[in-house]
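#struct-help
A.M.: can someone run this one for me? Single chain, 306 residues.
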Amino acid sequence: MSDSDAASVRDEQRERQRRRHLLGVKLRALVGDHVGSGSAVGEPLDFAPGSALVTGTHGWVYLDDRPAERLGASLAWALRREVDALHVVAESGTGVLARRAAEFDMPISVWHAHERSLVEAVAEPITPPPAVPEHHEIFRSLIADGGAVPVAEHGVLTGEVRGLEVCRVVDDHHTGATRLEVGVGEHDREAFQMLHGDVPAVESLARVVETVARHRTPGASQHPLNTLAAERLLRWRLEQEPGLVGATHVEPGEPPVRRRNLKDATPCVALGTTDAGEPLVVVCSAGVDLDLVPYAADARLARGGA
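D.P.: on it. Structure tokens below:
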């Protein structure tokens, strides 16, 4: 590591420490104002997604980065501390947090931080995802002709190869034209469009499908194309072998919230039917994912608690 790289790492560490200290001060002030001077407020404790402290038998956490995805980490911290109740504080995402928190037996209160006050969060209802626009649906057959599997999520139509997105139907912001862009992720699609814009989309897609399928085959050497969207590769396997989860049929399902991007690992949903003919909701993830259980509870809630 060069001296400049080492200095950059040290600067980042100092910034994280400074941020953690400020969050601790903020949480302690918020909790102190909320519970009043008659209750002892503990000192801030280490908690990677933000800050945490204990007052009596209650645990408090302040979520800083991507709070809607941190309920699992908050619960893990609360269980380690053996608190009787958990209070979750955030400045955004509190509606989703409150909805997911209600699915647990442990007493969990979610608070929206507004200046120096805590306002009890209202659970955000799950709304039906938007349908794919009709002028996008006409590309569904083109995606299939290119060898990809059409997948619709929250009004967006994409094509996947063994769980990895390889194309997407988009509207041009400048011309208003609708087209099928080929590539893995937004930047790859833009580069592919510049290099192969004169090649028919179905031909371009077929080439990409062949390449991706080769790398996402069991036993293939490690490659970015088989490490991306590992949870969706798992879902694809369940589609091929539904008996692994006691089902006779498994297919992709709509997620309870829209996926942020292709790069960050996010659980995915599958819907199926058990051997007994009962509906089944399956949530797939890969690696260590503390928020898997809250996400799965949300996915089940979206299907009426099936």
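A.M.: thanks! The chain has three domains: 3-120, 127-228, 229-306.
D.P.: also worth noting: The longest strand covers residues 164-171.
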